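Replying to the earlier thread about multi-chain prediction with a worked example.

Input:
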Amino acid sequence: MLTIKNLHAEVDGKQILKGINLEIKKGEMHAIMGPNGSGKSSLSSVLAGRENYTVTQGEVIFEGKNLLDMSPEDRAREGLFLAFQYPVEIPGVSNLHFLKTALNEIRAYHSLPAMESKEFLKLTKEKQQLVDFNANLMNRSLNEGFSGGEKKRNEVFQLAMLDPKLAILDETDSGLDIDALRIVAAGVNKLRSADKAFMVITHYQRLLEYIVPDFVHVLYNGQIVKTGTKELALELEEKGYDWLKEEVHQKESV
Amino acid sequence: MTSDKSFYEFISNGVPGPEQKVDADNAILPARKLAFGRFKELGLPTVKTEEWRYTNIQRYLKDAFTLAQEEQGTVTAEQLKAAGIPQLDSYRAVLVNGRLQADLSTLPTGGKITVSKVSDAAGNPQLQAWFDKHPHLQSQPFAALNAALFADGLFIEAGVNASLDKPLHIIHVYTASANAFIQPRHLIVLHKSATLEVIESAVGINDNAIAFVNGVTEVVLEENAELWHYNIQSTVKNSRHIYHTSTTQKADSRYHHFNFTLPSAELTRNNLSVALTGSNTETNLHGLYLATGTQHVDNHTFVDHLVPNCNSNELYKGVLLDDANGVFTGKIHVHQDAQKTNAFQQNNNLLMSEKANINSQPQLEIYADDVKCSHGFTVGRFSEESLFYLRSRGIGEEAAKSLLVNAFAFDITDQVHIPALQDFLAEKIRQYVAGAINN
Ligand SMILES: Nc1ncnc2c1ncn2[C@@H]1O[C@H](COP(=O)(O)OP(=O)(O)OP(=O)(O)O)[C@@H](O)[C@H]1O
Ligand SMILES: [Mg+2]
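Result:
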């Protein structure tokens, strides 16, 4: 589904991604971990098409197409979704109106007619229950005045509504209380299917108990320095990142 | 009456007085003459005139214009439609070059609310009492010029307790085949406890000629009267507008005014002023200006708190693109007697290009001590972060920008209580954004 080859990217002249290689297949759940500032959000930003990042080398193929050639909206329309680490507040744009616009723009891209209001409301209700998203928040301005946890839940609600092929969750678990974490994880699990894939960025092994990953990657200093299975997350939880950093520096000095 | 070269020169020096007008109406002629004298005394403003510092009016008057609009011109249904608001259920007063066309209009019947030509109503005691009497107009040269030589316009009078089942839509059509200086003039009088909704919009028919519109509307709200007053300024590219709206509010009256300045007149200068002469009034002034290209939009507002216990609330918002230029001057004068005044003013701007510019200045003159007054001014750029968020959900750049501009304008458009007008504005915003992106 997604193939990242030797991806290098910089922002404001500063090299952040330094040769990322990653292959994500249908049905897979990939976890990305790594210390603060290692480039996890940068990777998701580059994949989603944030304009202040410049790709200097490498390529990204998504469903057979060159992802880096596409506008952010076309990436979304092709089935990529990014749940933001810091969702933006947009006063004056209602949550529902925003979602309806998004959904219909994606449909139009696939030559589908705009969704009828009735059908849209039905879908909204269904997905809102699926991820246990407070119905009162749907009519409010997009994320305006939402608590940190409510914003994160709104990301998952949008994910459920837009039904992408590949979802990238950037620290969606941060800021969630224990119950919310369980609910959100359960929602994500319900959205999992054989033809969808997930890339979950997290700092906590806890999330991975609910959402069991097929692979765990450690990003450090703009590169994936280690890949393993869910046991790797446990090991990191126990030992931290220092041993890995040392490994990397030893390799570099050889 | 035509100026060969600079119209500015012509009206400064050569323009003949009102007695020369072919249709100089006897009953109104004395008022016209008075105004003409005042105009001569005041003279036209220059950039040195404080109130015109940011609007170089000479620049917009340097072309040649015809002052007389004796020609009637013909208007087709198509052209009328272009000036209309889709789905709007309203009474209609259609004015061609400032003159009411009864055959194109659907006016209210029943007699409690009358809509007539100012020229036909010249002898009416209300018109005689109020015409060109608003105190704030006395120092305004363009308002004086209008009073002296105006073409015609509407006299709208609503009797005690009168109201209409739907809004009255005044549609201006400008047909000039050569550059024309057109001066419409209205007087709206609402007697005690009358209510009315008035929408005014305009369309120009000839793209090759410049229409310079110098309009004046005076409004009188007697006790407990309420007026919703929507002014929609969107016409052809090469039109230029100076508009004075001056309102007098008596006790317990409510005035809701909206100035929607949409693309793409070259010049729009609004002088909106309200004199509060009775207590317990409510005044809401809303403005939304969307400017592109080299448009120049100048809003001067003035709320004059003369008596105690009045509330005024003003919110003007602007979105500026390209090389567009905005000016906002909001004056609030709270007189010594006007205790317990609440006066609020806010001007927010969104600059969507590096070269767009806004000059905003509040002018608060407060001479009473027990008052609540505030003012604020903001200028912001488009949030790239918000834009990216929307686009990352599959919303195209144009739709995303349109959502954001709509969101910015929401405080204003939300106050519009006519759904068809709300839809019309949303569509105008969409077109504005689309135009900006396809440029
Ligand atoms: N606009 C920018 N200019 C300069 N440096 C930037 C910019 N944006 C991000 N960076 C830097 O890029 C590096 C990677 O940041 P990124 O947000 O991708 O880290 P992260 O792995 O997501 O961290 P966290 O776990 O804290 O979320 C950081 O050192 C950050 O300071
Ligand atoms: Mg991050």
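The two ends of chain B are 39 Å apart (CA to CA).

Feel free to reuse this layout for your own posts.
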